[in-house]
Design goal:
about 120 residues; mainly alpha
Chain lengths: ~120, ~120, ~120, ~120, ~120, ~120
C-alpha cells in the first residue's frame, strides 16, 4: 500500500511540532491544548461520540491533519468501517462535493489504520 | 421569553420555501432534498447520533438555519441539555470563538424547544 | 408578498453605505470597488456569464448581500428562472445542504425581482 | 441615525446569553471564555494591536457579532477612523468582495461608537 | 515542465479512490456521486457554463482537487485560456488574495492540460 | 533541519507563477496584484502592523502559501518570536483548533526564517 507509513509520519511530525509549541512560554496556546484534550473526555456523552463529532467537524471544515488525528482516535475507540462511511455521508451531504477529496484521503488513511489493528 | 415564537416562525418559513423549491422541476435539487432525509436515517449509527453529527457540522460551518433545524431534530430524539452543552463545547473548541455568537443563539432556540416539551 | 420591498431596501442601504466608504480617502477600498465593477464587464466571456459566476461564488460562500446583488444583476441580464434553478443546483451540490437556507432566501428575492419586471 | 441603539442592544444580548452559558456547569466552555479574555491582554504585543488582530480575523471570517465586539474594543483602545479604514482595506483585499457587506455594517456600527464618545 | 504528470496522477488517484468509495454499500454516497454527475448535464444552461460555475465555486472554496477536476472538464468543453483568466479574475475578486495561491497552481495545471491537447 | 530549503522553494515557485499570471493581459488580475502591494504600505498604520494583520487573516482562513508569504514579511519587518506566538494565540482562539495544523507548519517555516537571519 503506497501510504503504508502515513500514520507513523503524521504522528511523529505532529508530536515533534506540538512539543515545540508547548515548549514556548505562551500560556494561551498551552491552555488551549489542554482544553482540547478535556473536550473529548467522557461526560454526558461518551468519548467515542465526541470523537465522531470532532471528526465530522474536521471533515466539513476540510482540515486534513485534524481529519487524520480524529480518524486515529475513532479507530482507537472502536468505530467500525460501516459507521465511518455513515459519518462520511453526513459530512458530504452537509458540506457538499468539496468534501469528496477529503473523503478519498480519509478512506486511504482509515484503511491503513484498520490494516494496523 | 422574547423569542417565544422563533421555532414556529422558522418551521413555517422553511416549509413554505422548501415546497416552492420542490415545486420547481429541478431534479437535482429534488434528489438532494431526498438524499438529505436518507442521510439521517437509522443505520450503522442511530439517527440520534447522526443528528448530533449534523448539528455540530452546522455549528462549525456557522449556518444559522441549519443549526435551528438540527436543534429541533436533536430535541425530538431526546438529546439532553448537558449533552447539548458538550456538543457546543466540541463546536467551540474545533471552530473557535467565532462559534460563540451561534452558541448564544442556539441556546436561546434550545431553551424555547425545551420549554415547549 | 411579505418581502415586497426587500429589493428596494437592499439597494438603498447598499448605495448609502457604499457612498460613505467611497467618501473616505482610503485608496485601496476605492480601487477595489472600481476593480469589482471592471471584473464583470464583457470580455472573453459575456457579462451575463460573469454575473452567473459571481452569483454561484456568492452562494457557496454564503454571503447573503452578495447573493442579492448578483441576483439583481442576473435578472437585469435576462437569466431565466429555469437557468437560475440550475445555478442553485450547482451551488447546493458543490457547497452542500448548508447552502439550502440561502437558496430559500435567494428564491424569495428572485421572485420579487421577477414580479417587478 | 437609524441604528442609534445597535451598540446597546448588542451588548445587552451578548451579556445576557454569556451569563447563561457560563451559568451552565460546562467546564470547557467556561475555560474557553476565560482564555478568550487572556488572549487580548498586554504581552509582547499591546492589547490595542491584539484587538486589531482579533477584529481583522473576525472580518475575513465574516462573523457579524465578533466584528461588533472587536469594534467596541478597538474604539475603547483608541483606534482612529483612518486606522480602521486601513484595517477594512486589509480585510477586503485578503478576503475579497464578500467582505464588503460586513464592511458596510461595520462602518455603521463604528459611526455609532464614535458618536457616543 | 516539472508537473508534466500531474494530470495523469490526479486522474489515477481520483479514479482508484472513487471506486473504493462506490464499492462500499453506502447508498447516500453512491447517490451523491450520481447526482454530482447529473448536475453538470446540458439543461437550461449548457454543460460548458455549468463546468465554469463548478470551477469558480471550487476556486473560491479553495478545494485543490475540485479545481483540478473542473479544469479538466473545462478543457474538454473548449474553454479558452483568455476565458479561463477571466474566471480566475472573478474568483480572485470575490474570494480575495487568499485565492491567489490556488490561481498559481490552477494555471500550472491548465498549462499541462493545454500542452496535452 | 528537514525543511531547510522551504523558504527558497516557496519564493521561487511564487515568483515564477506570479510572472506568468502578470504576463497574461488580464487587467483585473494585474490591478489586484498591485492593489495587494499598496494595501500593506505605511499609512495611518505602519507596514509592520499591517503585515501582522495580513498574517493573522491568512492563519484563520488557513491559506498555507499566504501564511508563508506574510511570515516572510513579518520577519523582514522585525516581528519577534514572542510576538509571533501571541499572533498564533489570537489565530487559534478566534479560529479554533483547526488552526493548530497551520500553526505547526508556520512555526517550522518561522524557525527557518529566523535561522537565516
Amino acid at each position: 500500500m503506497e501510504n503504508q507509513k502515513e500514520v507513523a509520519e503524521f504522528n511523529a511530525y505532529r508530536e515533534k511540532m506540538n512539543e515545540k509549541i508547548l515548549g514556548s512560554d505562551n500560556l494561551v496556546l498551552k491552555r488551549l491544548f489542554n482544553l482540547d484534550t478535556n473536550t473529548y473526555e467522557d461526560g454526558a456523552l461518551p468519548s467515542i461520540t465526541k470523537e465522531m463529532l470532532g471528526f465530522v467537524a474536521s471533515m466539513v471544515l476540510r482540515c486534513g491533519d485534524c481529519i487524520k488525528y480524529h480518524l486515529g482516535k475513532c479507530a482507537d475507540f472502536g468505530v467500525t468501517t460501516p459507521q465511518m462511511f455513515e459519518i462520511f455521508a453526513v459530512a458530504n451531504i452537509v458540506g457538499g462535493t468539496i468534501v469528496i477529496p477529503h473523503t478519498r484521503r480519509a478512506l486511504g488513511y482509515w484503511e491503513e489504520l484498520m490494516a494496523a489493528k
